[in-house]
Design a protein that fits this description.
Strand order of the largest sheet: 3-4-6-5
Helix content: 55-70%
Distance between the termini: 45 Å
Oligomer: single chain
Length: 184
């Protein structure tokens, strides 16, 4: 495989990984530790990711238990969760913080599905832009005399196949997320 194609494929792979990461923090009706990936807690004078100051476990489908390593951080962790965009209501018993994940309303499900579609479309656009960059690189190689017209045509075709496969992957990731969101 030509370097223009392999570097394009590497970038496309990162685009899909990034989409999966952003879908991880999209709340569904199911409890998930990934929901808290973007939450930062004021700990010892600096903002630390929640998973670096507490253990997050999911004992049941709709329950999240957060156990701070330092009990002094209970209030800060609770505050960080309450002020996040997750709309979750933590309760603190002095030892652990429990969060019951309420089922989503039909309206909220539709909003989340719409958001997921928009994120997937951004990823498809990113993949197409990567293809465009790869094609420009291939054209430059032809112009510089590094490859023949036949090779250019073959590389362009190969890059299109790679692009199609990543668009398909994005669509599959979206389909799975939509199914998870719409699950009652």
């Amino acid at each position: 495989m030509h370097s223009a194609i392999s570097s394009s494929e590497e970038r496309m792979k990162k685009t899909v990984t990034s989409l999966k990461d952003s879908f991880g923090s999209l709340r569904t009706g199911r409890a998930s530790a990934a929901l808290f990936d973007k939450i930062k807690v004021d700990a010892y004078g600096e903002k630390s990711p929640l998973n670096q100051v507490a253990n997050i476990s999911i004992p049941e489908a709709r329950l999240i238990v957060i156990q701070p390593w330092d009990k002094a951080l209970m209030g800060e962790i609770e505050k960080a969760i309450r002020t996040s965009e997750l709309s979750l209501n933590p309760s603190n018993d002095g030892k652990v913080i429990r969060i019951s994940v309420p089922p989503l309303t039909e309206e909220r499900r539709k909003e989340l599905a719409k958001l997921a579609k928009a994120q997937a479309e951004q990823s498809r656009v990113a993949v197409r832009n990567i293809r465009r960059d790869g094609n420009e690189e291939i054209k430059k190689l032809l112009k510089d005399g590094d490859i023949t017209e036949d090779e250019e045509s073959k590389h362009t075709e190969e890059l299109q196949k790679v692009t199609d496969s990543y668009i398909t992957k994005i669509n599959q990731v979206l389909e799975e997320k939509e199914k998870e969101i719409m699950e009652v």
